[in-house]
Amino acid sequence: MEIFDILVSASFWAAVLRIASPLIFATMGELICERAGVLNLGIEGIMVFGAFAGWMAVYAGLGLWPGVLVAFASGALFGLAHATLTVPFGLSQHVVGLGVTLLATSSAYYAYRLALPEVTSPPRIEPFQPLDIPVLSDIPFLGEAIFSQTALTYLAFATVLIVALVLYRTPLGLALRAAGENPSAVEAQGLSVTAIRMGAVMVGSGLMAVGGAFLTMSAFSSFFFEMVNGRGWICIALVVFGAWMPGKALLGALLFAAFDALQIRMQQTPLGAEIPYQVFLMVPYVLSILALVLMSRRAEVPAALMVPYNRGER
Amino acid sequence: MRLEPVAAPGLARTLGLPALAIAATVVVASALAMLAGANPFATLGLIVKGAAGSKFAALETLNRATPLIFTGLAVAVAFRAKLWNIGAEAQLYAGALMTVLIGTQMGLPGPVAIPAMAIAAVLAGALVLLGPVLLKVRLGVDEVVTTLLFNFIMLLFISMLLEGPLKDPMGMGWPKSEAIPRDARLPRIVDGLRLHWGFGLALISAVVVWVIQVKTTLGYEIRAVGQNPQAARFASIPVGRVMVKTALLSGGLAALAGFSEVAGLKGNLTLDLSPGFGYTGIVVAMLALLHPLGVVVSALFVAGIFVGADSMSRAAEVPTYIADISVATALLFMVLAILLTRFRVVRG
Amino acid sequence: MGAREVVLRLEGITKRFGKLTANDDVGFALHRGEVLALLGENGAGKTTLMNILFGHYTADAGTVEVFGQALPPGAPGAALAAGVGMVHQHFTLAGNMTVLENILLGTRPLLAPGLGRAAARARVEQLSRDFGLAVHPDAKVKTLSVGERQRVEILKALYRDARILILDEPTAVLTPQESDALFETLKKAVAQGLSIIFISHKLHEVTAVSDRVIVLRHGRVVGEVATDQTDRHRIAEMMVGAEVALPHPALGTPGAALMELRDVSTPPEGNRTGLRRVTLSLKAGQITGLAGVSGNGQGALADLVSGLIAPDSGELRVAGQTVAGWSPRAALAAGVGRIPEDRHATGSIADFTLTENAVLEGYARPPFSRAGWMDWTRARAHAEGIIEKYDVRCPGPEARIRLLSGGNMQKLILGRALEAGPKIILANQPVRGLDIGALTYVQECLIAARDAGAAVLLISEDLDEIRALSDVIHVMSEGRLSPEFPRGSKTPAELGQWMAGQGFSDAA
């Protein structure tokens, strides 16, 4: 049975972690925003810009880690634009989010064309290399599957842990969650809902951009147009699937990546060759919709998600 | 800071702020041109000239505006009911697909084929949006994400057909469909001028949508549901049913964009039929403040920017994406300006 | 109250919103160990004053001093830090978080590494015992009763070492018995040296708990008296300028039952209580009053009568017929006139004109529409008729309803319901938040409708209003309905026991 063969190969599981990594970053980013009460539909465009900015920084001579920082900062900047319009001004998060996606995407393309007017094939950078964790990477199967990833993948998993710790174990996380549940509770304690929400959107957007940067700096080594290809929207579905909890969202991203990796491999089997490849490519999007349908009415949506807060108004 | 409602905004406020938003957009575009090492005034001049500087340019703008009027109307109708249809792109392709199917497979004579294609397109587009809307109404699934994801699924589906059953045998391997016969194409409005009746249909659609909104019970219901679904439900308006009707209307309008592009302009179906008309429709609708007649104006404006930028980038070394950035910037500045016509920012 | 140390002093507070002066040169002092009642009608400026004290608004003039230190204006948190705690009328709690999390919110610097839950829990439990505020620290707030939530709010303030407690309309959501428990807590707090400002418009409470009364009217302080040197009538006169009496309508003459519920149950929805085997008969020419603490099933009953929900089990009969396919439209067709609880969220559409709002319930039928086409001329004439007949003060039928005051908005909603000639009228909190003029007018309209033969269901949290207007009274508690009590047959204390759930046959 081909599926069985695929599932027991270590390289398959290594691929799952690789495919999941950008989704994990961006899903955590979106989760932070939504937990604070802001739906960030800028995610798709911010991932595009992050992919470009990180790659460009490395191409221009900065190191890989500075590149990641540049991506993060660029994402935070778009987050600032988003948050300024949606938080103190309380504009429609749908409209502003889509506007930010348009703006970030076209800015990335414009800058790419400006920086590299002449190229026909996209230039390459030296991406993050797999990092074998001493001892652990020698474990049979697990070593290859889990402990020979690039540093960014390890960082993705660390991010989940950090997000969970901050959300549930610190005053900051408490205030952030309260801002998404009942902003007047936050304001009544003398804290600024505006500052908390704006900060959350900026940090969240930074993470989205790092998710995009994973594509150019770890998965591939070039920047292509349309390389994000709906991953941002999928991450929004993953946040819902994960019921706005970091651990569950991570699980969702892994499950999703497993299906994605499986369909890629199925394409190469004799059975897969019979089916148009587009059917396989549809799988992630169909899965996302299914995830939304499954979780409908089950999860506890942050009560103040998409509800702007105007001080002093009750 | 806080926002305080302005009781009676004056003319300076209601007109001045949107004008300021446009001015700010021009400033951004100029800065972008300078980044590219071009003279901003010359660049802007080239854009205006490329959009409206000649009869050819103006007609090109009208042609480009046509699908944008349809998708803009589709979005305007849906957003009025707070139905976040971000899937106009998928509905457009559904319409284009039905147009090609009817046009190439049925062998109908022109006068029958054209209305048949249009009706089939409308039905297909309506159907594509029906799924997400039923999921929303019945299960509470957020339609933003589902309609977005449908765009990708639809494009892959079209790609599959174009490389399979619909592939043009004479297409030299390109994924494109056969062309619909000449007599099933939309005629030109004036002989010799490259402007087809799709534009006329778009204008008629805008008027029809406007009449629906202000004169019919459906329009009243749509506005009520969009403004306050709780009060609408209390007042005996069937909210779910109104949502579904809105979806059918919106999906159908977006599909007409696909119909008009295939039957009026391209003749066949390709994967690059729409350079994001569905998404740009959102900008068009927002710039028009969701007013159906305003959609016509804002579609012309947005189309002018795109056509002008295309023409400009051939002459100057400024990438054509300057148009996309300008449009996105205009959207963000405009929603802010509109807000500030109704609210003033106060301290403390 | 020997100590005369001033703990809080407001001086010359003035705040304007456009043309409206919400606070006009307001000043008073609060002493240590004192309960000061701040009394005033809705719109008298109490809420604005508190928002200024807490830095949510910046006053145009005036100063706030806490323990001798001036508070910086417009700095939320300054009052908290200085030891002032506020229990808002609308609780500021996050329902999806635990009691402990709600209490901890904002108590530590945001960037502190941890929450210190263990120590906090011990402290909360200690405070609970000291002040008689029993509540489980790990319960999610949304599972708590309204009374328990209020205890969480008080604990929040105490946890932050508040020396001054401000309670905004704290008893509005409590049963009389729960109110008594609250007063006990307040006594304990005063005994420990706290000072309390008690905001209310209920005179009997004010006279029961306060040492001193300050009356606000139209944004000004119009009176200040020691509680033991005055009586309710004098305070009432200060509040409204003249003494108001609740109406004393003669009893109605009941006729046939127009709407009957037999053993009707509905499922709970989210936090909302459902109905538990409710049997009720609304008779022509009678006002049926429904008393109870809010959140005990009144919402479900109102939704049922107005057609928003249908019985899950049991029978709903209108004019003797069991209804099928119950919906808002069916309810309207059956002659139910509806005045919803929340005129902003449910009763009107803010950005619609008065004309559009006037036909919200009737738009689908002639004369307002035919074959799907609206007849705006008729609609406008209808709106003008309501404006004229019900004295709706407005710029005209084409003005947006959001510009209207609450009272005028309510008059339009009332007119919309009454002009349809309803046989059954649901009036859910019809006078909440209205000024005296509009309040009296709405009550008179309801009595007139009763006298004309309508069956009126009046739902209110204000026991005095229920007792004055109703021909018969029911009490709701946890979704159950008490038997019918004729007007005057039960004292407020007896009704309060029913409100607290005593007397029901299936009481747990």
From TrEMBL, chain A:
Keyword RNA-binding carried by entry: no
Record protein name field: Nucleoside ABC transporter membrane protein
GO molecular function annotation: transmembrane transporter activity
Pfam families with a match to the protein in the record: BPD_transp_2
PANTHER family on file: ABC TRANSPORTER PERMEASE PROTEIN, SUGAR ABC TRANSPORTER INTEGRAL MEMBRANE PROTEIN-RELATED
Membrane topology annotation: Multi-pass membrane protein
Top-level taxon of the source organism: Bacteria
Transmembrane intervals: 6-26, 38-58, 64-83, 95-112, 146-168, 200-225, 231-259, 279-296
Keyword annotations: Cell membrane, Membrane, Transmembrane, Transmembrane helix
CC terms in the record's Gene Ontology section: plasma membrane
Compartments in which it is found: Cell membrane
Automatic annotation (TrEMBL), chain B:
A molecular function GO annotation: transmembrane transporter activity
Subcellular localization, as worded in the UniProt entry: Cell membrane
A Gene Ontology term for the protein's cellular component: plasma membrane
UniProt membrane topology term: Multi-pass membrane protein
Domain of life assignment: Bacteria
Segments traversing the membrane: 20-42, 62-79, 91-108, 114-135, 144-162, 195-214, 279-309, 321-340
InterPro entries according to UniProt: ABC_transp_permease (IPR001851)
Keywords: Cell membrane, Membrane, Transmembrane, Transmembrane helix
Primary location group: membrane
UniProt protein name: Nucleoside ABC transporter membrane protein
Automatic annotation (TrEMBL), chain C:
Example of a GO MF term: ATP binding
UniProt KW Membrane keyword: yes
Superkingdom field: Bacteria
InterPro entries attached to this UniProt entry: AAA+_ATPase (IPR003593), ABC_carbohydrate_import_ATPase (IPR050107), ABC_transporter-like_ATP-bd (IPR003439), ABC_transporter-like_CS (IPR017871), P-loop_NTPase (IPR027417)
Boundaries of every ABC transporter domain copy: 8-243, 259-503
Secretion signal, residue range per the UniProt entry: none
Pfam families: ABC_tran
SMART domains noted in UniProt: AAA
Coiled coil regions in record: none
Protein location: Cell membrane
Principal location: membrane
Keywords: ATP-binding, Cell membrane, Membrane, Nucleotide-binding, Repeat, Sugar transport, Translocase, Transport
Cellular component GO terms, alphabetical: plasma membrane
Protein topology in the membrane: Peripheral membrane protein
Protein name: Nucleoside ABC transporter ATP-binding protein
Organism: Rhodovulum euryhalinum
Biological classification of the source: Bacteria, Pseudomonadati, Pseudomonadota, Alphaproteobacteria, Rhodobacterales
